[in-house]
Structure to design on (467 residues):
């Protein structure tokens, strides 16, 4: 009888365990459990960033492609990635001012987009539908995007995967580029599972317009007032999706119960890095763009994109370049923009007005500085990256800068970040004012950055050298 009793218990336990496993299998993603398949094959292949990859673009009329690059039309080509051939891929140039200026200066080193399913439905690179090849425009260090995305990933922000690749065209050397995962379907599945939400890339038609929707301001309940958002949706948008996002923006504008509209934890992690890298061509700058907006179940969050003008280099390229390194190394973490800009950026301003969120922001900033900079991690990252890419920069066939410029740029971005980390730590401890007004009154306490020349990281004037 005793044996039979234990057998019954074992059978019941087995049945219960089987039921639990079945529930986890069917509903695991909804419960926050990510299946092993959520780490796609492409992540461990092309985006293994421990070495420089090789991409050969096989195209019939490359010269014709370059002549018509500004039209941003897709051309069909084949692509060989690390020795493996993929056929019928869509290829086009990408960029706004970068594309225009590269053409204006008579150069042909464009950033590129490769879309695998453009000409052939279902075509992917091991599950990846699209990636871009970043040309390191206005980036002599070749590391602005690479480091910014690494910082975001360190802080737990869903960031595009990236790695370096040597690009050839029909077997002929073209240059060293950064491969960047495009935030579209594969990106959403990788980060949020198959039951992901909506993804937008808000952007203006003209900078001269008001662009309140790009700034994530609530305007009205009419979806037509949010054309800069919904026009740039990555997935099909239904009316209920529009209503849900607009309601989130309304709640954000009111400044109450913000947890009902904002993924507060993720947004602050994003802003920590965004503020640290002093990216003025962003949501916290005059342009207000260069970000992705993610929404799921009425909660919005911001995702990183485009850092070629970060690390305080947005103001460069003027007739007389601005080089106030001390200003930008010490850029205030609590008011990272003028009052006019901050008042019109509710996703930052309306959160920071509340003490509990303000404290959380400072806590995350302290954790970031301690974990990323104060234990030698950053220096190792810079050193290993330079060692890995230097031979490829040296032979870069279309580089915007010389090899010597690269070495100087890489050294400069490293110095900038370390001094910036020193200043942020002092701001968190109250030794340096953390607001624009406070620093205007007290300029003596700032970290000395007199040995940094910001244009060394890259400026538009470098395009003249390329000519």
């Amino acid at each position: 009888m005793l044996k039979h009793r234990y057998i019954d218990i074992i059978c019941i336990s087995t049945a219960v365990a089987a039921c639990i496993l079945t529930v986890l299998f069917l509903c695991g993603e909804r419960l926050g459990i990510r299946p092993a398949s959520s780490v796609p094959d492409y992540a461990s292949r092309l985006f293994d960033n421990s070495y420089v990859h090789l991409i050969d673009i096989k195209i019939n009329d490359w010269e014709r492609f370059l002549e018509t690059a500004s039209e941003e039309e897709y051309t069909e080509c084949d692509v060989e990635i690390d020795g493996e051939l993929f056929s019928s891929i869509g290829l086009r140039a990408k960029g706004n001012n970068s594309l225009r200026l590269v053409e204006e200066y008579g150069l042909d080193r464009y950033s590129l987009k490769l879309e695998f399913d453009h000409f052939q439905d279902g075509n992917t690179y091991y599950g990846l539908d699209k990636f871009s090849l970043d040309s390191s425009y206005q980036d002599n260090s070749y590391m602005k995007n690479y480091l910014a995305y690494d910082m975001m990933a360190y802080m737990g922000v869903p960031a595009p995967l990236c790695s370096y690749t040597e690009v050839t065209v029909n077997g002929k050397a073209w240059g060293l580029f950064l491969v960047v995962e495009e935030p579209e379907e594969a990106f959403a599945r990788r980060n949020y599972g198959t039951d992901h939400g909506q993804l937008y890339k808000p952007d203006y038609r003209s900078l001269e317009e008001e662009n309140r929707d790009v700034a994530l301001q609530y305007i009205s309940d009419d979806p037509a007032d949010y054309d800069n958002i919904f026009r740039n949706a990555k997935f099909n948008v239904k009316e209920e999706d529009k209503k849900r996002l607009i309601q989130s923006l309304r709640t954000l504008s009111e400044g109450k119960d913000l947890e009902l509209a904002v993924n507060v934890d993720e947004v602050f992690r994003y802003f920590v890095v965004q503020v640290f890298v002093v990216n003025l061509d962003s949501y916290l700058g005059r342009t207000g763009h260069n970000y992705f907006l993610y929404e799921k179940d009425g909660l919005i969050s911001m995702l990183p994109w485009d850092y070629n003008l970060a690390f305080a280099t947005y103001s460069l390229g003027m007739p007389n370049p601005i080089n106030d390194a001390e200003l930008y190394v010490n850029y205030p973490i609590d008011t990272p923009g003028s009052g006019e800009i901050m008042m019109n950026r509710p996703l930052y301003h309306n959160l920071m007005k509340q003490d509990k969120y303000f404290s959380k922001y400072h806590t995350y900033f302290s954790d970031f500085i301690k974990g990323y900079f104060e234990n030698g991690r950053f220096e190792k990252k810079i050193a290993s990256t330079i060692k890995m890419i230097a031979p490829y920069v040296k032979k870069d066939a279309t580089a915007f800068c010389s090899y010597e410029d690269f070495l100087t740029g890489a050294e400069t971005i490293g110095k900038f970040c370390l001094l910036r980390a020193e200043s942020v730590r002092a701001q968190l401890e109250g030794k340096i004012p953390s607001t624009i007004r406070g620093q205007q009154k007290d300029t003596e306490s700032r970290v000395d950055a007199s040995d940094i020349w910001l244009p060394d990281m890259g400026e538009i004037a470098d395009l003249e050298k390329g000519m």
Observations:
- DSSP finds 17 helices and ten strands in the chain.
- Confidence is low (pLDDT under 50) at residues 21-37.
- The radius of gyration is 24 Å.
- The beta strands are 53-58, 75-81, 84-94, 111-115, 130-134, 162-169, 172-181, 198-200, 291-296, 299-304.
